[in-house]
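Today's session is about reading a structure prediction critically. Students often jump straight to the picture, but the first step is always the sequence itself: look for stretches that repeat, for charged clusters, for runs of hydrophobic residues. Only then move on to the predicted structure, which in these notes is written as discrete structure tokens rather than atom positions. Here is the chain we will use throughout the hour.
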Amino acid sequence: MTESDSSARLTLGQRLMAGTLSLALVTLLGLAAWLRPSDLGLGTHQQLGLPPCSFRFLVHTRCPTCGMTTAWAHAVRGQVAEGLRANAGGVLLAALAAAAAPWLALSAARGRWLGPRPRINALAVLSVVWAAVVLVEWIVRLYFMSK
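Below is the predicted structure for this chain, in token form.
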């Protein structure tokens, strides 16, 4: 980290973006807290008036993101094991959101990044790791479901 990474002032646009992203993450976490996790491990999103998973309806098996909302609903309650059973990628995403929201809010409020500034390479790596977790878990579920 260079001196300019942590001491450079954020522009008004950067501060607004960081604050908006923080608010969006807090809203998602709050929504997850409001939802009641489905006992089935998936389908929690239907409490929002959304339809059941089309992939599951058409293919008769879970899609890679089935259980994601349920995982968030468990994760915000500290029910990590239940969340992992629903969707490990969802728990990872909820944890990242819970960590990023205050970091973004504090950075926006103080006008400087709290710690290192975000880097596109780090975001790309996090995205690939998350996608890998989701896909590996899905493949494992498919394998064990076929047994």
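Discussion point for the tutorial: The mean pLDDT is 91.
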